[in-house]
Design brief:
The structure holds two protein chains of two kinds. Chain A is mostly beta strands. Chain A contains no helices and eleven strands. In chain A, strands 2, 4, 5, 6, 9, 10 and 11 form a seven-stranded mixed sheet that branches. Chain A is globular and about 40 Å long. Chain B is an all-beta fold. Chain B has no helices and eleven strands. In chain B, the strands form two sheets. In chain B, strands 2, 4, 5, 6, 9, 10 and 11 form a seven-stranded mixed sheet that branches. In chain B, strands 1-3-8-7 form a four-stranded antiparallel sheet, with no helix packed on it. In chain B, strand 7 and strand 8 form a beta hairpin. The chains are: A mainly beta, B mainly beta. Chains A and B meet through strand 5 and strand 10 of A and strand 4, strand 5, strand 9 and strand 10 of B.
């Protein structure tokens, strides 16, 4: 069955960096676009970034452009989110999710359980 | 950027009730709208895409309608699992989620 497992969350100081990973199984990873979505405590869903099936196209929400980088390694069935210059308002559960199609700008049909990132001094 | 709004923000209902949630886009998104359900402590779950297409395995009590800028999600007979928060998401131009509608027990 389709599984997505995030890791790499934790506590980091403001201004620090963190790299999240999402290992997938149960489907051909290289055939699908992938997303990162976050949810601050008690708040709604915020879409962050998307990457196409082969990694040649990416896009970001304005609030993280220049600070976050989405990437993928299709040989390792792994999606990444490099987060730099973290701020307190980045504190959230971060989800990886699969797009229904290859290009990655559609809807999200499978989600991981999420990994918590806390930015605090 | 396309902004999404949802109403109401909270809805109180009972098991067996028919409930409708509205989602509005700041500009036309044709029919490129999806709906998700999220229960506390879990990841969102895809219910409907392209406004009205039910995802595989989703019960038929869920239905979606609309086009352009106004959309609805209807649950024909609320079940215990349906007390949750519902999000709409547009994918006409990048990806944007609505703020959510919480359905709680009356």
């Amino acid at each position: 069955q389709v599984q997505l497992v995030e890791s790499g969350g934790g506590v980091v100081q403001p201004g620090g960096s963190l790299r999240l990973s999402c290992v997938v199984s149960g489907f051909t990873f290289s055939n699908y676009g992938m997303h990162w979505v976050r949810q601050a405590p008690g708040k709604g869903l915020e879409w962050l970034a998307v990457i196409s099936f082969n990694g040649d196209k990416t896009d970001y929400v304005e609030s993280v452009k220049g600070r976050f980088t989405i990437s993928r390694d299709n040989s390792r069935n792994t999606l990444f989110l490099q987060m730099n210059n973290l701020r307190a308002e980045d504190t959230a559960v971060f989800y990886c999710a699969r797009d229904r199609y290859t290009s990655g700008w559609y809807f999200l049909d499978f989600w991981g359980l999420g990994t918590l990132v806390t930015v605090s001094s | 950027d396309i902004q999404m709004t949802q109403s109401p923000s909270t809805l109180s209902a009972s098991v067996g009730d028919r409930v409708t949630i509205t989602c509005r886009a700041s500009q036309s998104i044709s029919k490129f709208l999806a709906w998700y359900r999220q229960t506390p402590g879990t990841a969102p779950n895809l219910l409907i895409y392209k406004t009205s297409t039910l995802e595989s395995g989703v019960p038929s009590r869920f239905s979606g309608n609309g086009s352009g800028t106004e959309f609805t999600l209807t649950i024909s007979s609320l079940q215990p699992d349906d007390f949750a928060t519902y999000y709409c998401q547009q994918y006409n131009n990048y990806v944007t989620f609505g703020p959510g509608t919480k359905v709680d027990i009356k």
